[in-house]
Amino acid sequence: MRPIEIIALLPIIVALTHPVVLMLAIAIRRHHGLTLTLSLIGYAATLGALIPAAHVAPTKVTPLLTIDGLALYLTALVAIGGAASALFAYGERARGREEREEIYVLLSIAVLGAAVLASSRHFAALFLGLELISVPLFPLIAYSRLRRRAVEAGMKYLVVSGVATSLLLFGIALLYAGVGTLELAGLGRWLAGEGTIASAWAMGGIALIMAGLAMKLSLFPLHWWTPDVYQGAPSPVTGFLATVAKGGVIVVLLRLLLLSNVHQEIPVTVVLVILAVLSMVAGNLLALRQENVKRILAYSSIAHMGYFLVAFLAAGPLAVEAVSFYLAAYFLASLGAFGVVALHAPEGEDIASLRGFYGDHPWLAVTFALMLLSLAGIPLTAGFIGKFYLFAAGVDSARWIAVGALVVSSVIGLFYYLRIISALFIRGDQGEPTVTAVTAGPVLGWVALAVITALLIGLGLYPTPLIGTIHGLWAQTGP
Amino acid sequence: MTAVVIILVLIVGGPLAWLAGRRDGGLARWIALGTLALALLWLFLFWAWAPAAGTVPGQGPWLTDLRLPWIPSFGIGFHFGMDGLSLTLAVLTLFLGMIAVTASWTEIQGRAGFYYLNLLWAVAGVLGVLTALDLFLFFLFWELMLVPMYFLISLWGHGDSNRAAIRFFLFTQGSGLLLLVGILILVYGHQAATGTLTFDYEALRTHTGLSPQLAMWAMLGFFLAFAVKLPALPLHTWLPDAATLAPTGGSIVLTAILDKAPAYGLIRFLYPLFPDATGHLAPAAMALGVAGVVYGGVLAFAQSDIKRLVVYSSISHMGFVLLGVFAWNTLALQGVVMQLIAHGIAAAALFMIAGGIHERLHTLDGDRMAGLWAQVPRLSAMGLLFAMATLGLPGFGNFVAEILILVGTFRGYPVLTLVAVLGMITTTVYALVLVQRAFHGSPRQAEAGRDYGVREGLAMAVMTVLIVWLGLYPQPVFHAAAPALAALGPAVTPMGGG
Fold first, then answer.
1. For a FRET experiment, which of A99, A185, A410, B316 has its CA 20 to 30 Å from that of A438?
2. Residues 6 or more apart from A43 whose CB is under 8 A from it?
3. How many domains is chain B built from?
């Protein structure tokens, strides 16, 4: 291995060292605060390792991985997402008496998985990355093992993940039978040579792979597990699941489409449009009837995955830009929203329990409202620029059906965001003041929330630096 | 520069009012009033000393022009500018903002700081729409004013105001997204034709390069957004509940201030950007306008709730605006500008009077009150005066406005004009019914409380002076708006534009 490859691989190496160090530390001394500190240092080191890696990108490392702009960008996002989730988990777990330290180990393994997934240029690496994300998520979701819902959610995710994995593996096998290579770019070369997908093996393989990834992304109609799992998992883990786990899959799907150009094939295009429209409309419609905030956010994330597909459909650089920017906006808003739910958790997760929230916790309520407004795409938040990108991508590529569905579903989506916001700001009728003791745990969570909010507003007001970075990525994105 | 300064003053004033309101609600309203007065003063000074349009090199037809790069990769600039049209409407917006604060003075008790924050930011959003010369920036402000308006209706409204507020938000947001699609079609069409990606109004105006079909779709996106917000028939269904259930200040912001934004958008963007497509739409749009005039008038007549009556009368007045804009000649456009000003003042005054009645009688049902004149003569006199103004009696601004629109329309569309004139008659009827019901006869209510004091009296006096002045000597408004309107390139009517 050449030195340049080691430098390029540095973020992944650091991310790999991170859980090992945490495990050793726990083995030596079990201490909640110490574990969190080490974990935060680990994420900071991963972020730091991105700087030398960016100088040598794009670099292919082994036949499996490619470290390019896109991979580094997602690694940065997931490291930030992991750190935020760890801080929220600390705030939430500070109250409990279960074993708390392992949560940070599991989170860091999943972050490693997302980084591998985003860097993969080979189906083997894709599979490894996906499993590295999924396996730690089983115990993470069922972490509060004394709560029935948590165990149920963990089991559900285990089964769904198993099915998705087997679909994916079978698809990869079929594809190999048809194409004869497992490189993502090899699929593109084969397609360019063939002109069209005539081979039934390859076609079936692509269909199964797409189904497997769609299940992971919870695209309609493979979304059914999402609300239960989101509701059952501890809130910091739900935020992690909605962002880090999804983000890796989104980037690998984007890379697959870019390298193989498979989305230019008519049948694939049609399927993608249908999945996008159904996910947007159905996700938002199903959210309307929910009372539990986490379930609402689960359905809303289904709709957001549909939004991402709209950006995928626009070919070329604008698609990468739109996906990259929307990823950042979605990460911030989702992490923030679940963060508020995590810090608020003892007071309940139903909309009704949020009534008059503004009166008790004005800053937390304003933060929550901002996160929801960003998810809805209202100005002065990052979500607005993200929504703008989606529309620009859709209009530029003249995907009118998808644009129309985007308009309709955005309006539907706004309705349930407003329902929550109304509840937050309405004057509480009960008149029973809820006093939350300020402990060290939530304070760290509040700091994380404040940083997320600042980024959310900052990107909404002046997105140019991030857009510039994303432009740089496109230049560094290679096979 | 001026445009950014006044917007910034309001944006900063909002949180100040909020922080002050956490300690003392009374202080919050003074801060809100002071902020608006400061911005208005700045604008007056600017008006007095600004060099005439076209005399400063490099700023084209604008009185003030500020360009800063913002999102260069999309060709989006931080571009604000004002001409006579935006300046006139901005002055009016700030003035009506002060009226809205005055009208909320005693009505808003709970969370006053947050209330004034929302009020100031809604006004700031409208000012942004009036001065943005970059289509992205325009869209941003267009969306931005929705959130504070939503809170104003939802949190301080009466009855089921939350539902009405959500309906308002969904209607305007949905149509706003159509506006975004329209803007993007225009921008990417421009890029395909010229190779440059830009959201700048002036660049897009000089060359749109859209096929007629795409131009039609893009124009419809713009038109629908403006028509919903105006509101024009049949997209008005969100307004009556939202404006009736809102607190008095919220009703003023919603009907007298926020409707400047779509009217301005119709004038600024529709014909200048899509001359042919808009020409095709004109007969249909004018028919909708006339339908609005008649429908609003008839429904106003059928209302017993005073506030609802004012709401329907403003639907009727906005019908005139639609009629005048699509006639697209200088005479009708002068009328439209005058109508926006006169309707703004009259509607604000009537909402304030309705709010005053509600505060005193705790009802707005016209059937449950009578003989107010005997109990609160000053309030009732003002009610009579502004009812006369709104029905378009000569001597008030509304009369000048409607006559100009009708004369401007008559040459091209005599039949539509005649129908609109008939619609005006219903206006007379409902205005008289209002006066008859509420103010005359023998008092039905035991006690009507105190009459107008200094605060309300002063606000009413200023509005009275303004509306009479506009009716007797409208020349200054025409003078300010004429060059701006001429620059948009409407047909010049033989009678000239004032």
1. A99
2. A18, A79, A80, A82, A83, A86, A108, A111
3. 1
Asked if residue B136 has pLDDT above 90, the reply is: yes
Say what the pLDDT of residue A77 is.
Answer: 94
Determine the pLDDT at residue A317.
76
Locate the chain B residue with the closest alpha carbon to A427.
B155
**Torsion sign across C-alpha atoms B76, B77, B83, B87:** positive
Give the model confidence (pLDDT) of B247-284 as tens digits: 999 999 999 999 889 999 999 998 888 888 888 999 99
- Cβ of residue A396 closer than 8 Å to a chain B Cβ: yes
Q: Which two tokens stand for residue B294?
A: 């008649």
CB contact (8 A) between residue A422 and residue B154: yes
* Residue of chain A minimizing CA distance to B141: A379
Between A and B, how many residue pairs show a Cβ–Cβ distance under 8 A? 73
Q: Is A392 on the interface with B (CB under 8 A)?
A: yes
Higher pLDDT pick, A448 / A343: A448
Residues 6 or more apart whose CB falls under 8 angstroms from that of B162 comprise: A422, A426, B154
User: Distance, in angstroms, between A412 CA and closest chain B CA?
Assistant: 8
Structure tokens that stand for B482 in this block? 């004429």
Has residue B325 been placed in a domain?
yes
Cis ω for the linkage preceding A221 (within 30 of 0) = yes
Domain assignment present for residue B339? The answer is yes
> Chain B contact for A200, CB < 8 A?
no
**Which residues of chain B does A463 touch, with a Cβ-Cβ cutoff of 8 Å?**
71
Which is it for strands B76-82 and B64-71: parallel, antiparallel or unpaired? antiparallel
Q: State the average pLDDT over residues B135-150.
A: 92
Whole-number pLDDT of residue A165: 93
- Name the residue with higher pLDDT: B398 or A428: B398
The helix/strand/coil state of A59 is strand
This complex has an ipTM of 0.88
Nearest chain B Cα distance for residue A321, angstroms: 11
Q: What is the pLDDT of residue A440?
A: 45
Q: How far apart are CA A35 and CA A13, in angstroms?
A: 20
Rounded CA gap, A35 and B196, in Å? Answer: 53
Residue B490 lies in a domain: yes
Residue B359's domain comprises 274-498
Chain A residue numbers touching B73 (CB-CB < 8 A): 464, 467-468, 471
pLDDT tens by residue, B329-378? 888 999 999 999 999 999 999 999 988 888 888 887 777 777 788 788 88
Beta-carbon separation of B140 and A373 below 8 A: no
Longest Cα separation, chain A: 71
The tens digit of pLDDT for each residue in A386-410 reads 999 999 988 888 888 989 999 999 9
Supply A88's token pair: 């929220």
Helix (H, G, I), strand (E, B) or coil at B80: strand
Phi-psi label, residue A97: left if phi above 0, alpha if psi -120 to 50, beta otherwise: alpha
Task: For B29-88, write each residue's pLDDT tens digit.
Answer: 899 999 999 999 998 888 888 766 666 666 667 777 888 888 888 888 888 988 888 999
Closest C-alpha among B234, B238, B224 to residue B149: B238
| B278: in domain | yes
Instruction: Tell me if B71 and A403 make a contact (CB, 8 A cut-off).
Output: no
